[in-house]
Write a structure and sequence with these properties.
single chain, alpha+beta, Jelly Rolls, Arc Repressor Mutant, subunit A, 2 domains, four-stranded antiparallel beta sheet, disordered N terminus, AraC_XylS_family_regulators
Length: about 300
């Protein structure tokens, strides 16, 4: 029932609902909500204050967006813009649950595929099976625990999927012949190499937005170019670097706690570190520490 008041934290909303913040990388906020039905009639119209993606998860309700009444259910997708007027009603007697992404205009302005959303208006429609699965997998990953860098890149990749699904996505793709121009390829290789340099020397403390600013790009463009040039996402490449740094540290005899290593190398928590390390090398950090730490030499006296 996304007719709540404005604000950066959904937990400040006044509409009765149970909120779960999933992540808040720079310029974006992702959260889930399950509505509590107290009144089956229409809520008072509220003015949406930011660009939002509202993805149905369960239940059904009616919404009135800028005077147009439609049914929303678990297949529904809604993209709103600041200034839209929204009200909802629950004539069916059931609550609903949904995922919401709030996105600052500056983030969308850096994405060529979001031009239609910024310039022409919002969109309401339905998700297909692929988009719905991508949405649910995104939520599952956020709930498992991700650092801000990976959250940001995953949200940008999901927005790419979503905007291609909607009629609002501008055709950001260049003609293949243009993409193969030597000057374009050289520029893209330089951008990817510069990003690798920044990642390797950042101490894993920079966010995706900060890396993009360092190389003079937008997060969306950098993510696309990096993947095209290297065959790897920025997150995957960064994880490879982080795991190698973790392995070096695990081989040291000081035995620092895994929680401290997680903080040092920018993981969300110890569980996140363990999961990424296991995915990369097939063993958890505790076992790797035993395998990599040299045996302590024992000295025996000559008598």
């Amino acid at each position: 029932m996304p007719a709540e008041g404005v604000g950066s934290d959904p937990r400040r909303r006044t509409t009765p609902a149970r909120w779960r913040v999933l992540g808040h990388p720079e310029g974006m906020l992702a959260y889930q909500a399950r509505c509590i039905v107290e009144d089956h009639g229409w809520t008072e119209s509220t003015v949406v204050d930011r660009h939002k993606v509202i993805l149905g998860r369960s239940g059904a309700y009616r919404r009135r967006l800028n005077g147009r009444v439609e049914l929303s259910d678990a297949t529904s997708v809604l993209l709103t813009r600041p200034g839209d007027e929204l009200a909802v009603a629950h004539p069916f007697g059931c609550g609903d649950s949904y995922t919401c992404l709030e996105i600052d205009p500056v983030v969308l302005a850096a994405r060529p595929d979001a031009e239609g959303w910024l310039d022409r208006g919002g969109w309401s429609g339905s998700s297909d099976a692929a988009l719905d699965l991508a949405h649910r997998l995104l939520v599952a990953e956020f709930r498992r625990g991700l650092d801000g860098f990976e959250m940001a890149e995953r949200l940008h990749r999901f927005l790419t999927h979503l905007l291609r699904h909607s009629p609002l996505g501008a055709d950001e793709g260049l003609d293949p012949a243009v993409r193969r121009r030597p000057a374009t390829l050289v520029a893209h290789r330089r951008l990817a190499d510069r990003a690798r340099e920044v990642l390797a020397n950042s101490g894993f403390t920079l966010s995706l937005d900060e890396v993009a600013r360092e190389v003079g790009s937008s997060p969306h463009h950098l993510s696309r170019v990096f993947h095209r040039m290297t065959g790897s996402s920025l997150t995957s490449y960064r994880n490879r670097l982080r795991v190698r740094a973790v392995l070096d540290t695990l081989a040291e005899p000081d035995g620092r706690p895994l929680g401290a290593l997680a903080t040092e190398y920018g993981f969300a928590d110890q569980a996140h570190l363990t999961r990424v390390v296991r995915e990369q090398v097939g063993h958890p950090p505790a076992r790797l520490r035993r395998l990599l730490t040299p045996a302590v030499e024992t000295r025996t006296g000559s008598g």
